[in-house]
Amino acid sequence: MTFADKINTFNQNLDFTGTLPKGVSIMNPFKDNPRVFAITKEFYKKYYGDNRSRHLILGINPGRFGAGVTGVPFTDTKRMIEKCGIKIDGIETHETSSVFVYDVIEAYGGVEKFYSDFYINSVCPLGFTAIGKNGKDVNYNYYDSKQLTAAVYDFIIQNIRKHLEFPIKRDTCFCLGSGKNFEFLSELNAEHKFFARIVPLDHPRFVMQYKSKQKQLYIGKYLELLSGK
User: Fold this and answer.
1) What DSSP element (H or E) covers 54?
2) For residues 96 and 113, what is the distance between their CA atoms, to the nearest angstrom?
3) Tell me, what's the pLDDT at 66?
4) Beta-ladder partners of 121
5) What are the mean pLDDT values of the chain's consecutive 10-residue runs (229 residues total)?
6) Are strands 24-27 and 137-140 parallel, antiparallel or unpaired?
7) pTM of this prediction exceeds 0.85
8) All structural domains of the chain
9) Strands, E, within 91-217: which ranges?
């Protein structure tokens, strides 16, 4: 099996059967939208159709306008079409985090080079939503409540272990999010020894929302850390 085969099998079988806290809903694009799996299958076959080992980058959990639609972390429909060359009809999403991630990818050398060295997923590979103040669904993170963290704790560990069955380099794992996501993943890693070290990266949404004027500085910081310099 190629790296792509393993990813696609993982995605196809991804399911959460536990009980979530009241008011929180699971977001599983692979089961909610039949088109998503076709998109991801094409994407991973194109960029991961080999047995090359890669470093793992773990975000928090999928968002509604990125992986929640395309099935590929930090890749909205616009980036999927324009940067990855994969056609998506009838859906158009824009995710701010995706903009930054693909700016980093471009600076690294482009999609083929980046995806030949890295594989992106999330600490919790399924996303969550809750009803916001305006009465509409908003993204909800696995660490936003102790109840949710407890509900998905075993699910998270199980899926990190499944990722380690891929050809993943275990010297370093990169964590998108230098706050709560890094703290949680570091605690897990200290207990389970998944990786030799966890390297935090400032979350793309944080950069775009609060540090957009310094975006090039953060891109440079990413490149330095990802290159191990």
Assistant:
1) strand 54-59
2) 22
3) 66
4) 58
5) 96 93 91 85 96 97 77 92 90 89 97 98 93 83 96 97 97 96 98 97 95 96 90
6) unpaired
7) yes
8) 3-14+21-226 (3.40.470.10)
9) 118-122, 127-131, 137-140, 168-176, 197-201
Tell me the two tokens of residue 87. 């056609």
Distances (CA, A) of 168 to 1, 30, 103: 14, 23, 24
The token pair at 161 is 């272990």
- Write down how long the chain is: 229
125: which 2 tokens? Answer: 């590979």
Tell me the two tokens of residue 89: 């009809």
Strand partners, 118: 55
Token pair recorded at residue 136? 């509409």
Q: Is 94 left (phi over 0), alpha (psi -120 to 50) or beta?
A: beta
Helix (H) or strand (E) holding 58: strand 54-59
